[in-house]
Each structure stands twice: as C-alpha cells, then as structure tokens.
Amino acid sequence: MGSPLYQKVIDTIVARIASGEVLPGGMLPSETQLASETGVSQGTARKALMMLEQHGIVRREQGRGTFVTARTPDSSLFNFFRLRNRNGDVIRPELIDERLLERPATDVERETLQGAPLTVIEINRVRSLQGVASAIETAVVPADLFSGLERRAPLPSALYVLYQQAYGCIVLHADETIIAVPAGPEEAKILGVVEGTPLLQVERLAHDILGRPIERRHSIYRTDRLSYRVTLA
Amino acid sequence: MGSPLYQKVIDTIVARIASGEVLPGGMLPSETQLASETGVSQGTARKALMMLEQHGIVRREQGRGTFVTARTPDSSLFNFFRLRNRNGDVIRPELIDERLLERPATDVERETLQGAPLTVIEINRVRSLQGVASAIETAVVPADLFSGLERRAPLPSALYVLYQQAYGCIVLHADETIIAVPAGPEEAKILGVVEGTPLLQVERLAHDILGRPIERRHSIYRTDRLSYRVTLA
After folding, report:
1. Gap between the Cα atoms of A24 and B23, Å rounded
2. Do A177 and B80 lie within an 8 Å CB cutoff?
3. B178 is in which domain, residue-wise?
4. A233 in a domain, yes or no?
5. What average pLDDT does this structure show over B16-34?
6. Is A38 a member of any domain?
7. CATH no. for residue A162?
8. How far apart are CA A104 and CA A117, in angstroms?
9. What is the pLDDT of residue B73?
10. Which residue in B79, B173, B227 is closest to A178 by CB distance?
11. B15 & B114 share domain
12. Which of B100, B81, B96 has the alpha carbon at shortest distance from B158?
C-alpha cells in the first residue's frame, strides 16, 4: 500500500510532536526546510502543512511561520480519565490482570480500523478498585500499526501513552456508545456479582491525531462503586 | 440580590446572541456605544467585554472591533442529541407525557443551581421510541431564572431551545455522571420492563454561556432499543 508523498512529511511532524521534540506553541521548520529534510518538493511540504492545519494540529501565521496548536498529550489524555468515585473524584483502578493475543480481525474490525487489517492485537485487562474487580476492558488495534506490541507485555496502565511514545499515534478523538447490560456468566464471575446485575458497557472507537481509527475498545464497569463522567462543551 | 453593573451589559449582549440578532462572526457595538445604550461607564462596558472574551464568547481585535465567536445555538444543541438507534442513527424519541411542578429546592439543588434557589420548577417527561416508552427525564431549574415556565406547558421537545428563546439562557456545557441501575418498581411500570432490568442513568448539570449552573437533569433510558453516544475531542 503506497502512501502519498505528503504523508511522509505529516508523519515526520507528528512524530516530533508525539516525542515532545516540538511542544504546543512551538515553531516548525519552514516549507523549504521540511522539503529538504524529507526529500519532497516544497509544494508537497506545503500540502502536508495545509492538511495538518485542517486537522487543527498546526496554525500558519502569514510572515511568521507555522506553529503547533495540538494540545499536549497529557491534556488530551486527561479527557480520558473518566472514572469517578462516589465523591466525584478521579480514580484510576489498579490493573490486576492482562492478556495479549494476536488473532485474525473480525469483519467489523476490518471494516472500521485503519488499513482494513487482516490481523489485530487484542489486549484484555481487568482492573480493580480498592481490591474489588470493577472493570473488564478489551482493546483491539491493527497488528501492522502496532507491530511487536505483544512483546511489550506487561503494558503500562495508560495504553494511549504507549501508543504515543512507542508508535507515534496520538489519540485525540473518540466516539463512545454507552448502554446498560446484564452481567453474563463470565462477567459475573470476574466481577464477583450475580448474573443479571446491571453493568455499564462502553464501546469506543478512538482516532489518532490524523483522524485514523486506530483502536476499538469494549469496556464493562460495575457502577455500584464508580461512575462514568462525561463533559460536553 | 444586586448584580454588578457589568452584568447588565453582559445580559444585553447575550440576549442579542441568543435571539440571533448578532450571529457568530458578527461585530458588536463599540465600548462607547454599549456604555451609552446600557447606561454604564465605558470602563464597565470594557469589563463586560473582557469577561465575555474570557468565556470565549467574543474575540476583540485591536483596532477592528469585537466579534462574536460563540457557536450558533444550533451547533451547540446538536451536541446534545445523544440518543442513537442500533444503526447508530440519531433519534429523537417522541414526548408522550409531561408534568410540571413548582416545589421547594432540595439541599443539593440549592447548593448546585445558580442563585441558590429556594424554589425550583421540575419538568417530568416520558419519551417513547416507535411506540415503546424508552426514557424518563426529570429536569430541574431555578424558579426565579425561569419565571412563568409552568404556564408555558406543553413545552417544546427540546428544552434548551426554549431556555434560549424565552429566557436568553444558552446551554453550552454540561457534566454528566453515568451509571447502570436496576429498574425500580415505578420505572419498571412506566417503561414496561420487569423490575431489576438494567437501565442507563444519566445525571447532568448544564451550564449556560456564562458558566452558570442552570439545570439539573436526571434521565433513565431503556438501552435495549437505543444507546447513548458520546464524542470526545
């Protein structure tokens, strides 16, 4: 699968933002410099900067240069700390179990994930809150985009930080579909509740800074001890 | 409760935005004009514009004037259309029952709603999807901010449009706390499910364009036929 030339320039810039080499507010090299560094024409470098500007990642100021506008990874990740205790405080349940598995993609995964992957990596995790298993999370990513991920186990608690630092994928946007479901036999066993107990199910499709759908996540929460917080603005 | 003088200028401007008299991108009168129209000093008018700028409602451009940056009510309201059917399409369940009630505020309402109201108006609504009762919503607003609301029944389906058009309150921000709950006897009866059926409970605190907490809303959804969609960016 050949990618257009401007993609090379975009990837170079995104990698610098992801690595922290260029901070929000920082200035990028000029079109001429970018073109020379990445071996493309100045027109191609310009096209890359225009696309990054359309995605809200950079801002070009006439006569001054191009500046990074993307939020820092920390502030963007902060939006994803959605679990709260009864007092409304942010909580980060402890990881108590993790299993990684490489497997063929399902039809839905092939249709919705970046690059129509044939193979995906599935990350199964259980988290506990004050010693009580409270969340079952299954994240699925394209195997080719996250090559070697299974060899990095145990993974850090915050997967998006890993995606960013090891693969240059900055998650900035996600769509979630939320419903209430009764605990099935397996979930009831893991979470220590009786079958049929109401649980919160969150299905998330996360997009990276370039708008590519890079992760599907299916999460199940016991909400007798925690709640899910959403802020709309 | 006396409000500061600049509040009068803010209210005047917000009312114009809410009514559509000034559109996003449109220019506001100068400080001198605003001061003369509202009977305050130029310094007070400047303070009001600075506060509106801090809230992201206007943008002041040196030597050019002050421009409205607030999103149009339509685009902001669109964010609140959160209910989807199984295909992911936006749905707007039909209103099948509405009851309004003026009553004393609870302690929590007095502590969290604008102006620490002694009295609130409670709007109870039931919505159905294709003939099946699917949502029970209870909205609570301060009685003094929404004076005469109970005489406007039946209310339009979208309350935020009413808040905006009749009271100049533009809802732009909301915090939601989401959990799964078992259907109690009353909910089971209204929604036609057996007691204990998992339901989605959404508690929302909505803020207006000035950051004032103007509505508490408690919603219960049957999610066997619909889902709750959240977009994070």
Report:
1. 31
2. no
3. 73-228
4. no
5. 82
6. yes
7. 3.40.1410.10
8. 9
9. 46
10. B227
11. no
12. B81
